[in-house]
Amino acid sequence: MLTFRDDSVTAVILGNMQDAGLPHAGCTCARCTAAFQNPAQVQYAACLAVVDTRKKRNTELHGGGTEGHRERASVYLVDATPDIKFQMNLLAGVLGEHPQRRNRLRQPDGVFLTHAHMGHIGGLPQLSKEAMFVNGLPLYATPALCELIEQTRLWSPLVAELDFRPMPSGASVDLGDGLVVTAVPVPHRDEWGVGTVAYHIQGSNQSLLYLPDIDSWDEWPEAEATLSSVDVALVDASFYSREELGGRAPVAHPLVTDTISRFTHLADRMVLTHLNHTNMILDVGSVAETAVHQANFRIAQTGDQFIL
Ligand SMILES: [Zn+2]
Ligand SMILES: [Zn+2]
Ligand SMILES: [Zn+2]
After folding, report:
1. Which of 38, 198, 229, 302 is most buried, by the most CB atoms less than 10 A from its CB?
2. Separation of 188 CA from ligand 3 center, angstroms?
């Protein structure tokens, strides 16, 4: 269970893998085999949470004066991954008890979806009545993704419990006291025509960009300006190099080697996430992992926190 600093906005990594996590279903590679055999080596699909423990505005007391009134923390998830049941429980300390149900955690204050791929929406059924049973959960996504989920009959019992909050490209939502989340459209494989976004998250002191999936840096002319403008940039690092793919072209993701050479000058803010199970930077002490650290890039680890 994770703990958080008081009176702060904290972004926390709850998973650092490509959609399928580690181990990967049906994979017998050395990394997946090791993770099947040793639960300590399991890694969850890429996910971020934002936790706001700031004291709320002063409230007036009876008979004059004011008191700093602390409400419960606000907790938001970015993406609902197939590992959501483990990721939700990492937040147990800050979610706290469900107001009505014994031995249950309170639901989060909202879930933001980046796009429709399995690793990013695959945890939604876990919020349905067979499992967490949310009620009126705010769900932020592109208008087309909201519509796709609403129209998916298979999920209709869950859909009835969601409070859809469509966010058109470039739209921002103010979550209170200067915590603002903005949807930033990015190019990414899009089978349903519902779009993919990164989220720009502005806290009281720092800003963070969460960009788990993008097809290529070349197809996103705003890359340089957007990454330059934030304090922390969590970016797609699915594949390390062409070598890992047996010389094949990457499957619509930038290579880590390319990301490092393009953004060397921004290394101070760059954090790599969404790693495929084949990615050599998963192996501590490997040539690839060493090269990432020598370039002063960081590799996201579950539990890493950024004060915003
Ligand atoms: Zn993904
Ligand atoms: Zn594998
Ligand atoms: Zn994707």
Report:
1. 198
2. 7
Evaluate whether the domain defined by 9-54+67-307 bears CATH number 3.40.50.150.
no
pLDDT of 71: 74
Closest-CA residue to 122 (of 91, 152, 96, 95): 152
- The pLDDT value given to residue 241: 87
- What is the per-residue burial (b if ≥16 Cβ within 10 Å, else e) of 187-206? bbeeeeebbbbbbbbbbeeb
| pLDDT of the residue at 56 | 64
Please check whether residue 52 is in contact with residue 72, taking contact to mean a CB–CB distance below 8 angstroms.
no
Backbone torsions φ then ψ of 194, nearest 5 degrees: -110, 0
pLDDT (tens digit per residue) in 231-259: 999 999 999 988 887 767 656 899 999 99
Give 277 Cα–ligand 2 centroid separation in angstroms. 5
Q: What is the mean pLDDT of the chain?
A: 94
Question: Which tokens belong to 4?
Answer: 């958080």
Point out the ligand nearest to the CA of residue 30: 2
Q: How far is CA 47 from the centre of its chain?
A: 3
234-263 as b/e: b if 16+ CB within 10 A: bbbbbbbbeebeeeeebeebbbbbbbbeeb
The residue ranges of the chain whose pLDDT is under 50 are 58-59
State how far Cα 143 lies from the chain centre: 19
